[in-house]
UniProtKB/TrEMBL annotation:
Annotated protein name in UniProt: Probable dual-specificity RNA methyltransferase RlmN
Leftover remarks: Reaction proceeds by a ping-pong mechanism involving intermediate methylation of a conserved cysteine residue.
Listed HAMAP family: RNA_methyltr_RlmN
Catalytic residues as annotated in Swiss-Prot or TrEMBL: 108, 359
Source organism phylogeny: Bacteria, Bacillati, Actinomycetota, Actinomycetes, Propionibacteriales
Subcellular location: Cytoplasm
Length: 367
C-alpha cells in the first residue's frame, strides 16, 4: 500500500520580493511613477527600456533625468534575479541558468534554440509541493511561490542574452514560453496568469509574445484548469499525466488521489472545446513503470477522438533515483500503439542531459 503523501498547495509564508515594474499593470506603473514624484509618462519610457530593449543598466536609460534616474530604477527595477550558475550544451544552443532570489531561494530557467524558434522554460515556484517521486524538484519540496516579476524576469534575461548575441546562432527573439520549470504553475495561479499577460501584452506594456506561443502545464489541479478555461486566453494547456490508470498515477502523481485521471481529462477537454486549442498530454516514459504496451493502449483509448497531442518525454533520471528512461524498443512500441489509436504523438527532443537538464537537478547541486 502506498504511504500517504502530503501535498502542499499553499506556499510557506516568506518575505515579499520588492515591487517591480513587471508586477504592475500599465495604469499601476503610471501611479507608481507619480508616487516617486515623476510625471506619469515616464512609466512608458521605463517599460520600453525593460520590455523592448531589455536594458538593465541605468546609465543606458538616457531619456530619464539624470537627477532622478537612480530613484526611478531603485523604485521600479530592483534586481530580483542574481545569476549563480550558467551552463550551456547542444553546441551552445541550450542555456540553463540558476538564479538566486532576494531571499536566497534558488530557481532555474532554460533557453533552448531550435531551427525557427526559441523556447524559454520558466519556473513558477521555488521548489514544488506536488511530491512526484521521479522529479528532482518534487523531492525538494516547496519553498515559496514566485512573484510575477520573478517569473517575467527569467524571460527578460533570456531575451537580453539573445538580443546581445550571447546565444549560439546570433541575435534573436524568444517565440515560445513553457511553464515547465520548477513548481506547479496552477498552484501559483493568479501570479502565473499575471505573468502570461506580461508576456503577451503588446510592447512596451509587455513582451509582445503570441498567446499561442505560451504553454501552461499542470499535474491536474482541476479547479484551476476550469478557471483557466474562463480566462479568455489562447494559451496551450499541458497536462502532466504520466499514467493512464489511477492505481499507478496515485503513486507517480500524488495529486491524483484528489482528482482522478478521468476528472482531469474531462476538465482538459472542456478547455479544448472552449479555446479550440489542442491539449498537450505530457508523459514521462519510465522503464518498467509506465511504459508497458497495455498502458499505451489504455492511454490511446482515453485520448482517441479528442483535440490532443501526446508529448512523450524520455525520463532524465535524477542522481541516485530508481527511476530511469525506457528502453528504445519500448519507447517505439509505445509510440506505435498510440498512433494505432489515431492519437498524434511525438517524442520530446532531449536537451541538456550533461548540464542536469531535468528541472531541479542543477539547483539541487548549487548552494
Amino acid at each position: 500500500m502506498n504511504q500517504p503523501v502530503e501535498l502542499v498547495f499553499a506556499a510557506p509564508r516568506r518575505g515579499k520580493p520588492p515591487r517591480h515594474l513587471a508586477d504592475l499593470s500599465p495604469t499601476e506603473r503610471r501611479e507608481a511613477l507619480t508616487e516617486l514624484g515623476q510625471p506619469a509618462y515616464r512609466a512608458r519610457q521605463l517599460s520600453t527600456h525593460y520590455f523592448a530593449r531589455y536594458i538593465d543598466d541605468p546609465a543606458e536609460m538616457t531619456d530619464l533625468p539624470a537627477t532622478g534616474r537612480d530613484q526611478i530604477v531603485d523604485g521600479l527595477l530592483p534586481n530580483l534575479l542574481t545569476p549563480i550558475r550558467t551552463l550551456t550544451s547542444d553546441g551552445g544552443t541550450t542555456v540553463k541558468s540558476v538564479w538566486r532570489l532576494f531571499d536566497g531561494a534558488l530557481v532555474e530557467s532554460v533557453l533552448m534554440r531550435y531551427p525557427g524558434r526559441v523556447t524559454m522554460c520558466v519556473s513558477s515556484q521555488a521548489g514544488c509541493g506536488m511530491a512526484c517521486p521521479f522529479c528532482a524538484t518534487g523531492q525538494a519540496g516547496l519553498t515559496r511561490n514566485l512573484s510575477t516579476a520573478e517569473i517575467v524576469g527569467q524571460v527578460v534575461a533570456g531575451s537580453r542574452m539573445l538580443a546581445r548575441g550571447e546565444v549560439e546562432g546570433g541575435p534573436g527573439r524568444i517565440s515560445n514560453i513553457v511553464f515547465m520549470g520548477m513548481g506547479e504553475p496552477m498552484a501559483n495561479y493568479r501570479t502565473v496568469i499575471s505573468a502570461v499577460r506580461r508576456f503577451t501584452d503588446p510592447v512596451p506594456d509587455g513582451l509582445g509574445i503570441s498567446q499561442r506561443g505560451v504553454t501552461v502545464s499542470t499535474v491536474g489541479l482541476v479547479p484551476r484548469i476550469k478557471q483557466l478555461t474562463e480566462e479568455g486566453l489562447n494559451v496551450t494547456l499541458a497536462v502532466s499525466l504520466h499514467a493512464p490508470d489511477d492505481e499507478l498515477r496515485d503513486e507517480l502523481v500524488p495529486v491524483n488521489t484528489r482528482w482522478k485521471v478521468q476528472e482531469v481529462l474531462d476538465a482538459a477537454w472542456e478547455y479544448a472545446a472552449r479555446t479550440k486549442r489542442r491539449v498537450s498530454i505530457e508523459y514521462a516514459l519510465i522503464r518498467d513503470i509506465n511504459d508497458q504496451a497495455w498502458r499505451a493502449d489504455l492511454l490511446g483509448e482515453l485520448l482517441a477522438g479528442q483535440l490532443v497531442h501526446v508529448n512523450l518525454i524520455p525520463l532524465n533520471p535524477t542522481p541516485g533515483s530508481k527511476w530511469t528512461a525506457s528502453r528504445p524498443e519500448d519507447e517505439r512500441e509505445f509510440v506505435r500503439r498510440l498512433e494505432a489509436h489515431g492519437v498524434p504523438v511525438t517524442v520530446r527532443d532531449t536537451r541538456g542531459r550533461e548540464i542536469d537538464g531535468a528541472c531541479g537537478q542543477l539547483a539541487a547541486k548549487t548552494s
